[in-house]
Amino acid sequence: MSLEARTGRNKQVYDESLARQVAGCIPYDAKTGLVILISSRRHPKRFVYPKGGWENDETVEQAALRETWEEAGLRGRITAQVGRFDQPSKQNPNVTGTVHWVYAMEVNEVLDEWPEQSLRIRQSMTIEEALACIGKKQFMQDALRAFQTVHARQFKLDRTHL
């Protein structure tokens, strides 16, 4: 498999209001309950969940898994949809500029090499630590809080099957 990330926006999906569609995962370790975030390219001391453009030759879930591999070097399975989160346009805060489709992904493979390994740092952390270092972007805070709810429910379901 190539270690090159997809680039450009020529295959980018937009909705009817021209909001860019982005897909991503909040990867987690099912054994420890920790989430795995990556450093932001623009603000290296800030962490984010892996996300990026949904392209027209893939499903939103495939895009989320691809972005998680490209940016974080993680592979796994989607266990739940966390939600859809709107990010306001930079030009007009009253309009949605980007729609984020976010999924919970149980990590089953941590790769040593991946496309953005020289640009990112991976770090495992608790939800509380993640909320503290993810920055002030409301959609990211909302996604992590929603993940926390989905994650708690997931572990309760998993424990009933033991």
Query: Beta-strand percentage?
Result: 25-35%
Per the principal axes of the C-alpha atoms, what is the gross shape?
globular
Q: What summary fits the major beta sheet?
A: 4 strands, mixed
End-to-end distance: 36 Å
Rg value: 15 Å
CATH topology name = Nucleoside Triphosphate Pyrophosphohydrolase
CATH homology-level superfamily: Nucleoside Triphosphate Pyrophosphohydrolase
Architecture in CATH?
Alpha-Beta Complex
Strand order of the largest sheet: 4-1-6-5
The total number of structural domains is 1
Q: State the low-pLDDT regions, or none.
A: 157-162
Give the count of helical stretches: 3
Written as H for each helix and E for each strand, in order along the chain, the element string is: EEEEHEEEHH
Mean pLDDT: 89
InterPro entries: DDP-like_NUDIX (IPR047198), NUDIX_hydrolase-like_dom_sf (IPR015797), NUDIX_hydrolase_CS (IPR020084), NUDIX_hydrolase_dom (IPR000086)
Protein name: Nudix hydrolase domain-containing protein
Domain Nudix hydrolase: 18-148
Pfam families: NUDIX
Walk me through what this model shows:
There is one protein chain. By secondary structure, the chain is of the alpha+beta class. The protein has a single domain (20-160), classed as Alpha-Beta Complex (Nucleoside Triphosphate Pyrophosphohydrolase), CATH 3.90.79. Helices cover 27% and strands 33% of the residues. It has helices spanning 60-72, 127-133, 138-160, and strands at residues 20-28, 35-39, 47-48, 51-53, 74-88, 96-110, 122-125. The strands form two sheets. It has a four-stranded mixed sheet. It has a three-stranded antiparallel sheet with strand order 3-2-7. A hairpin with a 7-residue loop joins β2 and β3. It is globular, with a radius of gyration of 15 Å.
